[in-house]
Amino acid sequence: MMKAAVIGASGYAGIEVVRLLLRHPDFELVAAASDSVAGQKLSSVYPALTGMTDLEFVHADFDKIASECDIVFLAVPHTAAMACAPVFIENDVAVIDLSADYRIHDKATYEKWYKADHTSSDLLERAVYGQPEKHRAELVAMGRSWEHGNTATTPLVACAGCYPTASILASMPAFEAGLVDGDYVVINALSGVSGAGKKANERTHFCHAAESAQAYSAGKHRHTPEIEQELSEAAGYPVNVVFTPILTPMKRGLLSMVTLRIKEGVSQEQIESAYAKRYEGEAFVHFLGTEMPQTTSVVGGNHAHVGIAFEPNTRTLIASGAIDNLDKGAASQAVQCANIVCGFAETDGLDFANPTV
Amino acid sequence: MMKAAVIGASGYAGIEVVRLLLRHPDFELVAAASDSVAGQKLSSVYPALTGMTDLEFVHADFDKIASECDIVFLAVPHTAAMACAPVFIENDVAVIDLSADYRIHDKATYEKWYKADHTSSDLLERAVYGQPEKHRAELVAMGRSWEHGNTATTPLVACAGCYPTASILASMPAFEAGLVDGDYVVINALSGVSGAGKKANERTHFCHAAESAQAYSAGKHRHTPEIEQELSEAAGYPVNVVFTPILTPMKRGLLSMVTLRIKEGVSQEQIESAYAKRYEGEAFVHFLGTEMPQTTSVVGGNHAHVGIAFEPNTRTLIASGAIDNLDKGAASQAVQCANIVCGFAETDGLDFANPTV
Amino acid sequence: MMKAAVIGASGYAGIEVVRLLLRHPDFELVAAASDSVAGQKLSSVYPALTGMTDLEFVHADFDKIASECDIVFLAVPHTAAMACAPVFIENDVAVIDLSADYRIHDKATYEKWYKADHTSSDLLERAVYGQPEKHRAELVAMGRSWEHGNTATTPLVACAGCYPTASILASMPAFEAGLVDGDYVVINALSGVSGAGKKANERTHFCHAAESAQAYSAGKHRHTPEIEQELSEAAGYPVNVVFTPILTPMKRGLLSMVTLRIKEGVSQEQIESAYAKRYEGEAFVHFLGTEMPQTTSVVGGNHAHVGIAFEPNTRTLIASGAIDNLDKGAASQAVQCANIVCGFAETDGLDFANPTV
Amino acid sequence: MMKAAVIGASGYAGIEVVRLLLRHPDFELVAAASDSVAGQKLSSVYPALTGMTDLEFVHADFDKIASECDIVFLAVPHTAAMACAPVFIENDVAVIDLSADYRIHDKATYEKWYKADHTSSDLLERAVYGQPEKHRAELVAMGRSWEHGNTATTPLVACAGCYPTASILASMPAFEAGLVDGDYVVINALSGVSGAGKKANERTHFCHAAESAQAYSAGKHRHTPEIEQELSEAAGYPVNVVFTPILTPMKRGLLSMVTLRIKEGVSQEQIESAYAKRYEGEAFVHFLGTEMPQTTSVVGGNHAHVGIAFEPNTRTLIASGAIDNLDKGAASQAVQCANIVCGFAETDGLDFANPTV
Question: CB–CB of C194 and A207 under 8 A?
Fold first, then answer.
């Protein structure tokens, strides 16, 4: 059993990491840190954990926690992660960072979009983008090197954001197979309200969010450069993404609708075949062919469903990816990354069936 | 008071027409026809109407109803409308058709998308597309001619569909002002479940639809040719629309997200100015500038809210339009059209404030 | 047109009063006061009012407002109402108070349940409990006396609370007809989240409230003494109420389930007859017999639906009342009371049909 | 591994049993039977199971299935269960019946409430009521006897209904401790829409159920005799239950509000102590003291939360129990019963943490 800690454990993503670690066969949860509720039982703050654990939240004392664990999950806001990740890396504690701080390879791009100095940019090169279906090999390599005692590669995983995860999974096969015509991608993505975090505000008020749909940050959401980075890598050339998220009345669930043009002469069969092949053998990503995925089918776990439609007149591919924004979009994908860098089976602790209804 | 009837009155759109007519200052509802519930009180089938009316649903006896009314609202499925509209037109009864049967000018296009012969194509030329903010002049002209006793122009209004209404309102100003670069428009639109109609089936089951988002008919929904027809007219050249609707867990409400490219050199100010000018003085369409519209602000009435975002790097305009799918997307827009062709004030019976929460 | 003002106009109940006054035939809204959003347009804070009004929120300057209006609606928290009602009464401005401050006739009872001194208890005797179907005669008398220039009866209406309104309407006929055995009444009532107010907090967060049911203040909610007062009056003897509210995932709507024992020998027919007779001719309260009312049938307006079931074995009456918590439970009932004390038709401004779906 | 089959596997309760068996350490799912979808993959009908299993639904051929399994779960409607249970019992296959057919000990009572002849009443005496926290000893004894080869005790478990489970758990400790005054119990219980089953009809239509609350079968729901039977047994004297369920806009979750009178002289501390003691050591039932339980805390798993409030003036106990109607109210409780009669650890396959948000 490896000893694991969670920083920012009382937020929505953090508590989901906690939930998964509490019944994980390889990790022992030794600390769930959250200054705002330190001293309270986990089950008091989240009654769903009643009977699951007697743990209490502790203060986020980085040095103390670093001395107690082998791996830490950072479920804190951006800029907060880069403030504590170095402490853990220096102590040879693997870092699974759920924030955006190490996702963008280019410092300047990060600083422009996040309007903050990057104070830990020396670690940017070490960080692997935590989207396992895309970066598995790097995650494996990083883990093996660490296992062999190379503290220069103590893992630092920059877990993919929720919108990027669904959007990349929905469109990566087309780019990788060289089917895409041009560099212009339109993404509209619907997210459940938990994506806005645990903080109560006007937008998360039930009477504002229920029975409601509204776009926000249209064309300028911070997940844009992250999606562009990964799709450009998949394409082999710079890709421009126009991304607009839409707040939707669901607690959890994220549906990304990716629209792009396909090269002349490419048939629907070729596209379907590229997708099927790309996700063959994946435990958590399932290509549904021309069935459009539904968020409820994936809520509560690490699975992603991808479906496509091809409009031949304009050679347009409409690719749709559904995930749980808190799980495959955050917590469970983080655990999946942790499984990989620690050399465990990738499905450990994640191989359960979600409620069917 | 003009005498009005509703055919298909027990469906979601039909009963909303009924609701509006029951308190309309210029129309008297003389018949609410629905074979499936004929003989039952309106308030038995829709308890929300308790205390509003003692009317009972009647059988859809076209000849009888034609003899009793001056204007009829057809809230029936496509193909059913073209089966009865001629009866009413022949009897000099104005027809406000909420179906798709007379929306598409081109018979072949209709027959291709709706997979049905058009049995009333002689009336296609007479029909005016019932989107008042776009076709007000034709609606007025049609009404005036009728008023002067010209039965050759007994009004036939082909009310705009729900997705087209929101999508046209969101993008028409850019096309009309000549700001759009190219002919390629991507539309993702979210609809509440009432858009799927009153029939209970697997998709409309609460346990399927709640907490759920799922695209359907991606790239091939029947509203596509209707949107293309109207935007092409606005543009002055043929426009291609890639349209994907998404079922969203709301009872009512529709949010259209229209994405298109803008000509080089056009500034955001020019775009905003074109929108502001286009909707100046409109009673029911409100341009919110760069505020993104929220469906809940328009649910229950005839208002449409439009907001835009401009992404200058790719010269992309993201235009969002919010309406109530059953009202501005069907029933209340039908009443608005009826007001116009009958020469009443356009806001008669529609000038009320929706619930604020 | 009488001039009307609303204090606390930006809260959920206040803005609903505003909505109703904006299209009321007899009242002109001259001021919508709310310190927190003073200077902002009503339609900025509540986009649903876009196109309905250009008014801005003003500061709650009681003296200034008293000089400008004939009638004021107080949509402020308890204790805040008693701080300003006297100012208006002294200026001969009729007060329609939506708070609890003047509902409880007995000062000590108020002070015990609300844990606050009653600083305006001299007005308690003047106040009429604003539940028109129960206290219409007193409201009429108060209004007529005022109309005749008697400033000693400048109206002060203590509008009924939301839970009390539904609970009283559901059980009053049985008490008034002397059918009830004993003094023990059990009430469970479900309320939509808007009942918790506009303030964003943990309980009103979408992710907490959606898909959730939870009782609160079981057996000790502040509406208990109010219900006891009114049912005791209806019964002619002191009645004990055990009341538990349940937060339910709806924006609006309130369903009260009242359970009480019926005297031996009383038949179901007698009970139904007592209810039918009691609400005969009422414009806003509808007895559905043994049909159980549904909240969605009354959301958005001033109607209340009441249905009953009789369990003969234990002689138990289960009476269910459904209202819109913000309308018949607050804003529209306040307008109904205002109509009565001002001598207008009771249905003025309230006689519209709600959305049917 | 014991071989398990599920009859009625495509309904909401059946598929939840399937979900739990798919990852159960002691049971191997050998057949999921459902005539209506026989031949289809489980993951086609329930996409949430994609990647979990390649099984297909099979026809409900009782003899064939009886020859293939050691234990069968009957997730079929009442009357259908008694038609097939004997086949399995005769073949020495343990029967875990989720229907109502063997719950009521008294044949006449069953026949009166279910308006059907009981065609398998010889098995009534064998059946144990499947509410493990109340009947664990009998379940254990039945299992042990079977294990010793006594086919006269091949287990037949009549799993408790959803409303009874929550209501019994909420009130049993007070009855067993002799604290209750009298024999009169009022229960109002809220259920999510999945309780109405998978069949699409008017009541389960999203547009009817969303944002809606409505009582049904008030005072005459079929779960009444089941609750009376169990509470009478707990009390030691006949108890009368007035039970009214309320359909609430949640997919899953059930909240029972039980109201009863407490004997004079009994303090709140005594009540709390009785509850705490009763559920001490239970893995799945948690007494929250005076915290009121919330359905979302238990949705997705086998846990039940119970909280109480005591109103001393009328000596009224308000006891609230929250469960997942499909899990602790059906599928997971059935698995818990199966674990017990098969001699497995009671928590096997059920010891996971639900989504926290």
Answer: yes
Note down the domain range covering C46.
2-160+330-341
Q: Provide the domain count of chain A.
A: 2
Q: How far apart are CA A184 and CA A261, in angstroms?
A: 8
For B209, which residue in chain D has the nearest alpha carbon? Answer: D206
CA distance A214 to chain B (A): 5
Long-range contacts of the stretch C142-151 (C-beta < 8 A, 24+) = C142/C341, C143/C340, C143/C341, C143/C342, C143/C343, C144/C343, C146/C94, C146/C341, C147/C343, C151/C92
Identity (one letter) of the amino acid at B315?
R
Alpha-carbon gap: B226 to the closest alpha carbon of chain C (Å): 26
Indicate whether D32 pLDDT > 90: yes
Q: Is A63 contained in some domain?
A: yes
Q: Could you report the per-residue pLDDT of D51-82, keeping only the tens digit for each?
A: 999 999 999 999 999 999 999 999 999 999 99
pLDDT, tens only, A211-224: 999 999 999 999 99
Region of B71 (left: φ > 0; alpha: ψ -120 to 50; beta: rest) is beta
Q: Which residue has the tokens 């870092």?
A: A95
Joined together, the tokens standing for residue B215 give: 């695209």
Chain D closest-CA separation from residue B125 CA (Å): 37
Give A29's strand partners: A4
Q: How far is CA C28 from the centre of its chain?
A: 22
A94 φ, ψ (degrees, to nearest 5):
-65, 140
Q: Write out pLDDT tens, residues C180-223.
A: 999 999 999 999 999 999 999 999 999 999 999 999 999 999 99
Pairing mode of beta strands B304-311, B316-323: antiparallel
Of chain C, the percentage scoring pLDDT greater than 70 comes to 100
Q: Which residues of D are catalytic?
A: 162
Q: Identify the sign of the CA torsion A241, A246, A252, A257.
A: negative
Contact B48 C296 (CB under 8 A): yes
Angstrom CA distances, A96 to A62, A117, A351, B103, stand at: 14, 21, 20, 56
CB-closest option in C188, C295, C309 to D218: C309
D contact residues 299-318, partner C, Cβ 8 Å cutoff: 299, 307, 309-311, 313-314, 316, 318
Class of residue D108 by CB neighbours under 10 A (exposed 0-12, middle 13-18, buried 19+)? exposed
The answer to whether the CB of C341 falls within 8 A of the CB of C157 is yes
> Is D298 found in the same domain as D180?
yes
User: Looking at residue C216, which CATH number applies to its domain?
Assistant: 3.30.360.10
Contacts of D208 in chain B (CB under 8 A): 206
pTM above 0.90, yes or no: yes
Exposed, middle or buried: residue A1 (CB in 10 Å: 0-12, 13-18, 19+)? exposed
Strand partners for B74:
B7, B97
Q: Element (H or E) spanning A2, and its range?
A: strand A2-7
Q: Decide if C16 is inside a domain.
A: yes
* Contact: A188, B251; criterion CB under 8 Å: no
Chain segment A11-64, per-residue pLDDT in tens: 999 999 999 999 999 999 999 999 999 999 999 999 999 999 999 999 999 999
**Interacting residues of D316 by C-beta distance below 8 A, sequence separation 6+:** C186, C219, C242, D259, D260, D261, D262, D310
For residues D296 and D335, membership in a common domain is answered with: no
Residue labelled with tokens 């000849």: B63
Q: For residue C202, which of A197, A58, D251, A14 has the smallest C-alpha distance?
A: A197
Same-domain check for residues A61 and A203: no
In a domain, D239, yes or no: yes
In sequence order, what E strands does chain C have? 2-7, 27-33, 71-74, 94-97, 128-130, 156-159, 184-191, 214-215, 240-247, 254-261, 285-287, 304-311, 316-323
The Cα–Cα gap between C176 and C233 comes to 9
**Percentage of chain D surpassing pLDDT 70?**
100
Identify whether residues D64 and D93 lie together within a single domain.
yes
CB A29 within 8 A of CB A355: no
